[in-house]
Amino acid sequence: MEVRLLRLGEAILLSLALSLLSLVFKRAWKVGPVLGAAPMLGYMLGYANFLFEVWKRLGRIPLHFLVEPVTLFVLSLGIFVMMRAVYVWVKGESYVEPDPWLQKLFQEAMEQVGVKARLRIVDRGDPVVYARASVIPNVVISVGSLECLGSDELRAVFLHELSHIRLGHMGLKLLYYCTLVLGFLNPLQVKLYRRALREMEREADQLAAELTNGNTLASALTKLAESLNY
Question: Which residue, 95, 145, 183, 209, is most buried by CB atoms nearer than 10 A?
Answer without folding.
Answer: 183
